[in-house]
Queue: 3 jobs
Job 1
Amino acid sequence: MSTTRDSNLTQSIPAQWQIYPSIPTECPRRRDTFIAFAITNLVTMVLGLAVGCRPFIYIISCRMFGKKKRKNVYWYNWLPTWGLTFVGNVLCAVLIMRTPGYEHIRVADVAMLYLQRPRITLLALTTVTYAIVWKGEMPWIRAWVATAGAELLLQIMAAIWVVRAGEGYLNQRHILAIAIWEWVNAGLTAIMAIYIVRCWRNQVAHAEAVDEAAKYPNGFVMQNDFWVQNGFSERQAVPKVKRLTFRVWLILMVIGGLGYAGVGAHQNLGLK
C-alpha cells in the first residue's frame, strides 16, 4: 500500500478514520491482519464457552457463582465477553501504534474502529446451547442471552463512534452511507438479541412447566396437548431447535457481512 495520499481525499474523511503510516513503510498484508483477528476471536470464543458453562463455573468457583435461578449467572457471562473483546481490541491497537510510522495513531480510534467486526463467540453459543443438554439442563443458555446483550452493546458503541467521528462530514454521501451502514448493523444485532431473549424466555417457561409436571405420578406422559391446555404454545412445548439455530445463524451472517463491509469501506477511504 502506497503512503502517498491525495490531499483532497485526506481532507474529505474524518481524521479518526485515517489509519496509515506517517513515513514510507510496508503495510502488513491483509492475510496477516485477518489471521491476527481470527486468533483473537478464537481465544475469546474458547474462554466464552468455558465461562458460559454454568455447571463448570459453579464447580471451579466453589459454588459461589453459577447457582441456578440466581442473577449473578448473567453478570459473570456478559462481563467477561464484553471485557475480553474490548481489551483484545485495545491490545491490537497498541501493537499497531508501536509499528514504525504509526506512532501518531490513537489507540482509542483503532480499538473502536474494529469493534464493528462481530465476534464468533455468539455463533458458537448458538450452536452448543441447543445441541448440548446436561442432566436436563441447557448449560449455555444463560451465556447465550448474556453474550447477545454484550454483542449488542459493542455494536452500539461502534456505531456511536462512527457518527461522532464523522461529525462535520455527514453532508458527504460516502460518509453518510457508512454511518447509516453501521446503524443498520446495530439494528440487526438488536433484532437478533430480542429474538434470542424471546427464545430464552420460552425455554424458561418450558423448564418451569416441566418442574411442575414432575409432581405428577410416575408414568404420566407429557404430550404437547398437556402444554397447550396449560396455556403454553407449541413453540414453548417443543422448541424448534433446527429452525431456531438456522435463524440466528442467518442473522449473524448478515451482521458479519455488514461489519466486514463497513471496515472495508473505511479501508477503501484510506484505512488499512
Job 2
Amino acid sequence: MIKNGIPVYLISWCKNFLDDHYSSFILPTLTKTRIRKLQDLQNNAIKIIHDKDFKESTVSLKEISGLPHIVSRYQILNKKYFDSAIINSNPLIEELMGKYNINILIKEKMMKIVYNSLKIIDEWLAIPSNYHR
C-alpha cells in the first residue's frame, strides 16, 4: 500500500504543481528552452517517482505517469479556465467581453479563436513527441 501510495501522492503533487491556472497564461511568453526545462522537470520527477532510467523517453514517461506534455497540459488548463470564467461570470472576463462587445452569440467564436491561438503556439514550438534530453 505504501509503495503504491507514494507514487500516486507524488504524481498528484506534480499535477498540482503544474496545474496552477494562472501560470498557464505564461505559456505564450516562454521560450522553447524554458518550456523544455519545464518538461525536463516533469520528466525527472516521473523518473524519480517510478525509479526509471535517466535515458527514459518523454513518450514512455507520459505512458507510465498519465501526465500529458507540458504544452498540452497548459492548453487544457487555459481552456478549462476560460470555460469556468464564462460559466461563473468572472468579472475580469465579463469586463473583457464587455470591452470588446462580445455577447452570448459570439462567445463560441471567441473560444475558437483562443483554441486556434493555442494550436498555433503548439505548432510554433514544434516539440516532437519523442523529445527527451
Job 3
Amino acid sequence: MLCSCARRTGQITYVEVGQAAFGEPGAIVTTSVLMAMTIFVTIAYMVLVRDIWSGIVESVIGETLDSDQSNHIGYRSVEANQEDPTAKLGLKLNADSWGDIMEAFPIFCLSFQCHFNILSVHSHFVNPTRERLKGLLHGTMGLTSGLYIVLALCGYLYAYEGTKDDILLNFAPSDRVMIVGRLGMGLTMLVAITILVLPCRDIVFLVMDSVAEKLQEWCAGGKEYLPVDGTGEVLTTPGGTMVTKTRAFFLAVRHVGTTVAIMGFSLFCALSVPGVGVVWSICGSSVGFMICYLLPGVFYLKIRWHKQFNIRKAGAFLVVVVSSLAIVICTRHAVLQAMQ
C-alpha cells in the first residue's frame, strides 16, 4: 500500500506520503509517530545495555547476589542455570491464555518492521515494477523469517519455559563464552543508542519547527515574516540587524537540551521497566501497529478515495479496522501487564 501511494503521489519517504495524503497535519502526525518509535527503541536498547553490562560487571567483580537481587536485575541464578534443559517436560505448543498471544504478537510484527525504509529502496530501483518489489520483499522476509525461526527454536530448546526476553539472561554471568557475546552485544547497543538518539532529536526539531511556524502564522494573523529554520544560517531582522550569535546560542541550547531530555527520559524508563519484553510489547502494539498497518491503510484510502471501490480498497479498509482494534486491545493489555 505504501509503495502504491508513493507511485501515485511521486513521494519517496514515509512522511512525504502522509503529507501528500493529508497535508501538513498528516506530516506532523506521521513524524510524531516515528519520533515515538525511535524513543521506544532507544528505551529498549538502554534496557539491553542495563542487563548486558550488569552481567559483565558482576562477572568481573565476582559479586554474589541473593535471589531477590537476581530477580530484580533479571538473571537466573547459577544453580538454576546449571540445570539440564532436557530434564524439563515436553515442548509447549499452545499458549496458556489469550493474554500471552496479545503480548507476543506485537513483538512478532515489530521484528518485521521495515515500512519507513522500503520507500527509499523502491525509489532507487532501476525498474521499480511491482513484480520486482514483490520479489525483493518475499526474498527478504523469507531470509529473515528463517533466521528468526532458527534463533527462536534454539533459544526455546535451551531453556524451554524459562526462556527470558533477553536470551543472554539465561546464561550465568560467569560463563566465559557468553562474556564475549555480552561484550559484543553491549558495545553494539551503546553505539546503536547514539545512532537512534540523533535521528530522534532531528524528528523532535521537525515537529517543534512545524508547530512553531503554525503558531507564528496564527499569532501574526496571516502576515509574512522571515522564515525560521534550524540551519544556523545568517538571519536578519527587517531592519537589517544581525542575529547570528543569538541564533547560534539558541540552537546550541536547543540541541543540548533536547538531547539531554531524550536521554534522561529514556534512561528513566529503562530503569523502571522489568525487562525489554515489556518495552517491545508496548511499542509494537501501539506505534508499531500504526506504522505497519494503520497509517498505510489510511493513506491508501485517502489517496485513492476518488477511485471506484475495488478489492484493494476493501482490503485497505479491513486492515484499518483490524489494526485499530489490535492497537486498542493489545496496548491496553501490554500497559496493564507492565503495571503489575
